């Protein structure tokens, strides 16, 4: 009888498109965008700012109602944690919000709000979890248990009602299916349609990687962020084609787990930038948490996605062949609408993986090698769970960029 062992490798991921408040995570931006023209009362865009770093903009968000914002979970789950993952949720007191603005440089007191609550989707997990099986150490098989930035959704509540700004229209569960079908029907390999758009205040150009080793150690930069809200049109990339495109990653399936995935959406640039044969417009550094929008049958702009992440390579953003992916709003519509109906008891609502780490810490778990080590558990195959292992794996797989402050 062959003894079979299975290890789950939890790989810390940093491939989100968000600028981190703690300068620990990557950030996206809009390349090739144009300035947004919108009246304040129709403007549902919000800017998340790190109030301990000169109000530095680090992510986008959208206004849901009088007090609530929708953003990406990786915008508010960051480094600095003491548990196995090394992650924690940013304290609401560290986040300020501006709404109703096109030009962030013109923010007045009435435009600035303080966050009071951060609610992360319970199933959010930024880790790639690989289950590697073998018999007698040979014939390794890898199964993706958790893909990159799963359920990348979070909510932020502020201290007072928003002042005369717009509210985004979300794609409901049923509407999302209809819009998926509509966008898929518009796909054309030879003539990519400009049928979705993104908005944000991120950086506006790709910057070549530093050649100096010391400069490289200071993180890969993408230029200055934009004070003015920008937008650009993109092509919705059907999820099955996106899955096939990502299959070349090793191991395959770390971004999209199947051709019928319903938790993520993908886009590609629909055109080339002027003067470039390699790049098109895209979302990237500083735009995480912002919306992916499309028009419904009544020509209303509807939010169908939340800017989330992408794969490694050059250029960092704007690749004509490597997709950007988004959390699919329709999948989380019921959770979003139910969550904003009540004020949370706690200022921070942790995702399950951080809640588990918190419980382990309270039980006195430690990293020593012992029978009671909380970092070693049993899975269904009787193997061990090895948390926090191979943290450098994403150096070759993930889109790892950090913003210099």
From TrEMBL:
Keyword Disulfide bond: yes
GO BP term, example: proteolysis
Protein keywords: Disulfide bond, Hydrolase, Protease, Serine protease, Signal
InterPro entries: CLIP_Serine_Protease, Peptidase_S1_PA, Peptidase_S1_PA_chymotrypsin, Peptidase_S1A, Trypsin_dom, TRYPSIN_HIS, TRYPSIN_SER
CDD domains, per database record: Tryp_SPc
One Pfam family here: Trypsin
Keyword Cell membrane listed: no
Gene Ontology molecular function: any one: peptidase activity
Recorded coiled-coil stretches: none
Taxonomic superkingdom: Bacteria
Peptidase S1 domain segment(s): 30-341
Name of protein: Serine protease
Organism in which the protein naturally occurs: Photobacterium leiognathi
């Amino acid at each position: 009888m062959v003894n079979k062992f299975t290890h789950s490798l939890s790989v810390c991921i940093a491939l989100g498109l968000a600028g981190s408040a703690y300068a620990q995570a990557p950030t996206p931006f809009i390349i090739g965008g144009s300035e947004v023209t919108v009246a304040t009362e129709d403007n549902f865009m919000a800017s998340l700012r790190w109030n301990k770093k000169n109000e530095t903009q680090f992510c986008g968000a959208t206004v849901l109602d009088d007090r609530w914002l929708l953003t990406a979970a990786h915008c508010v789950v960051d480094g600095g944690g003491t548990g196995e993952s090394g992650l924690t949720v940013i304290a609401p007191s560290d986040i300020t919000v501006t709404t109703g603005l096109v030009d962030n440089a013109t923010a007045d007191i009435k435009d600035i709000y303080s966050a009071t609550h951060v609610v992360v989707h319970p199933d959010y997990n930024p880790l790639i979890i690989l289950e590697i099986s073998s018999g007698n150490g040979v014939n390794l098989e890898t199964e993706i248990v958790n893909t990159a930035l799963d359920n990348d959704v979070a909510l932020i509540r502020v201290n007072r009602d928003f002042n005369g700004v717009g509210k985004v229209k979300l794609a409901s569960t049923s509407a999302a299916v209809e819009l998926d079908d509509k966008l898929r029907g518009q796909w054309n390999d030879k003539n990519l349609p400009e049928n979705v758009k993104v908005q944000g205040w991120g950086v506006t150009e790709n910057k070549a990687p530093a050649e100096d080793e010391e400069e490289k150690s200071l993180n890969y930069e993408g230029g200055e962020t934009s004070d003015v809200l920008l937008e650009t049109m993109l092509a919705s990339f059907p999820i099955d084609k996106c899955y096939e495109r990502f299959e070349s990653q090793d191991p395959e399936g770390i971004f999209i787990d199947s051709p019928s995935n319903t938790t993520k959406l993908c886009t590609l640039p629909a055109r080339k930038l002027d003067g470039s044969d390699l790049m098109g417009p895209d979302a990237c550094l500083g735009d995480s948490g912002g919306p992916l929008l499309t028009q419904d049958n009544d020509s209303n702009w509807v939010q169908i996605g939340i800017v989330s992440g992408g794969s490694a390579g050059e250029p960092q953003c704007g690749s004509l062949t490597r997709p950007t992916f988004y959390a699919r709003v329709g999948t989380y519509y019921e959770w979003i609408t139910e969550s904003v109906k009540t004020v949370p008891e706690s200022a921070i609502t942790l995702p399950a993986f951080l809640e588990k780490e918190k419980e382990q810490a309270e039980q006195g778990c430690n990293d020593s090698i012992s029978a009671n080590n909380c970092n070693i558990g049993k899975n269904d195959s009787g193997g061990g769970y090895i948390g926090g292992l191979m943290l450098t794996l994403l150096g070759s797989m993930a889109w790892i960029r950090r913003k210099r402050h």
